[in-house]
Amino acid sequence: MKIDHIAIAVDSLDEAVRTYSDMLQVHDIEYERVESEGVSIAILHMENGRIELMEPMGDSSPIKKFLDKKGPGIHHIALETQDIDSQVSRMSSSGIRFLGDVRPGSAGTKVTFIHPKSLHGVLAELCSHPK
């Protein structure tokens, strides 16, 4: 496994993209709406990874709830695996708890989230990119 991206919850995607792209001098930015998660995202492609900025699409978005409770900031780290289903099975048998089943994510990925209580307070996403 390797770190795939760091996701940051923001109130304004446009404002956050301006700030991050100027500060990091990143101009390779990809935009997408992820209906299954209720977010609009901007992915900043860097030399050694990606930063994913997430803005809620509505009041029912989990990101809206996160922003209301904690404010803008790091939401989760994403870990890439080649075989998400076998990793979920392996981790589940070791007592790791997940937030829902494996489902579609951005850019054709398959994703699921590890409950923060299983990782000492950190929300982590497992993701598997299409081959």
Topology:
Layout lengths: L1 E8 L3 H12 L4 E6 L4 E8 L2 E8 L5 H9 L2 E8 L3 H10 L4 E7 L5 E5 L9 E5 L3
Parallel strand pairs: 1-4, 5-8
Antiparallel strand pairs: 1-5, 2-3, 3-4, 6-7, 7-8
Task: Characterize the structure shown.
This protein is of the alpha+beta class and 131 residues long. The protein contains 3 helices and 8 strands. The chain has helices spanning 13-24, 62-70, 84-93, and strands spanning 2-9, 29-34, 39-46, 49-56, 73-80, 98-104, 110-114, 124-128. An 8-stranded mixed sheet has the order 2-3-4-1-5-8-7-6. A hairpin with a 5-residue loop joins β6 (98-104) and β7 (110-114). The longest helix has 12 residues, at 13-24. It is globular and about 45 Å long. It starts with a strand and ends with a strand. The model has no long low-confidence stretch (mean pLDDT 95).
Q: Class by helix and strand content?
A: alpha+beta
The N- and C-terminal alpha carbons lie at a distance of 16 Å
Order of helices and strands: EHEEEHEHEEE
Q: What is the radius of gyration? A: 15 Å
> Which outline best applies?
globular
Number of strands: 8
Helical content (DSSP H or I, runs of 4+): 10-25%
Low-confidence stretches: none
Largest sheet: 8 strands, mixed
Output the number of helix runs: 3
Arithmetic mean of pLDDT: 95
**Strand order in the largest sheet:** 2-3-4-1-5-8-7-6
Residue fraction in strands: 35-45%
Compact summary:
This protein is an alpha+beta fold and 131 residues long. Helix content is 24%, strand content 42%.
